[in-house]
Write a structure and sequence with these properties.
Layout: E1 40-48, E2 52-53, E3 56-57, E4 64-72, E5 77-89, E6 92-106, E7 112-122, E8 130-138, E9 142-149, E10 159-169, E11 174-185, E12 198-209, E13 213-222, E14 238-247
Antiparallel strand pairs: 1-4, 1-14, 2-3, 4-5, 5-6, 6-7, 7-8, 8-9, 9-10, 10-11, 11-12, 12-13, 13-14
Length: 248
């Protein structure tokens, strides 16, 4: 769900696969499985060494703080909001707020599917707001999502983003997490430049889970800095990202 997250923000209740939030996308962000017998409200607070959204730093390669809350109904409906500090233009620090709503269902085979929508707003830059719709499927350790946005970060340019997230238990409290994504735009000029039509991002990392806390260290990479995001900071193609999260 929005988040991905990537990130990354981690919500533990009814979590199927972690979406390594910026080491794998904001994406926004949460995937829930309709298997519990009661509704739940859950959330998380996180500190990140760098807020990487779909491979691109939205915090000028600096630390960021994030907060998320979600309501997960027994019927399969869910909704919530996510907020993160961002720094698109030096030295101004703004806030990105994403609200989301969707429906998820587990099939008898164990496969789950979901459909939903989210809306992203950046304070002080209303032109950067944009809506998305998404579809997703997941198994116990792997999830995939496909997003569509009719406009993107203030551009009248439709965008499609697809991602795959995986999590594999290594030890009792240690997991290997991985993410891969591709963003496709219609090739229009962005902020005086013509961005690459296809942007690939990926991450791999290790997560340590405790009762209410988690620590994740990931290596995040992107194939090009010629993107359509309004970021004026030095845009490193690769970066290590440390995330400290507390769920509640």
């Amino acid at each position: 769900m929005p988040v991905r997250a990537p990130w990354w923000v981690i919500l533990r209740p009814r979590r199927l696969v972690d979406s390594p939030r910026s080491p794998g996308a904001v994406v926004l962000w949460f995937l829930f499985v309709s298997a519990d017998v009661f509704a739940q409200v859950s959330g998380s607070a996180s500190l990140l060494s760098d807020y990487r959204f779909r491979g691109v730093s939205l915090s000028r390669n600096r630390p960021a703080a994030q907060l998320a809350v979600a309501y997960d109904d027994v019927s399969g409906w869910y909704g919530g909001a996510f907020a993160s500090t961002v720094q698109l233009f030096y030295p101004t620090r703004e806030l990105q707020v994403v609200s989301f709503v969707g429906y998820a269902k587990r099939l008898p085979s164990g496969l789950s599917w979901e459909a939903g929508a989210d809306y992203s707003v950046i304070t002080g830059a209303e032109s950067y707001s944009y809506p998305e719709v998404y579809l997703g499927i997941a198994t116990e350790n792997v999830s995939a999502r496909l997003y569509y946005a009719p406009r993107y970060f203030g551009l009248d340019s439709d965008v499609i983003y697809g991602e795959i997230n995986a999590s594999q238990q290594l030890l009792d409290r240690v997991r290997l997490v991985a993410h891969g994504g591709v963003l496709r735009n219609n090739g229009q000029s962005a902020y005086g430049l013509r961005p690459d039509r296809h942007i690939l991002d990926a991450s791999v990392g290790v997560a340590l889970d405790f009762d209410q806390f988690s620590v994740q260290l990931s290596w995040v990479g992107i194939n090009s800095v010629n993107t359509l995001y309004p970021v004026t900071a030095p845009r490193n193609k690769n970066s290590a990202v440390l995330i400290l999260s507390r769920s509640f």
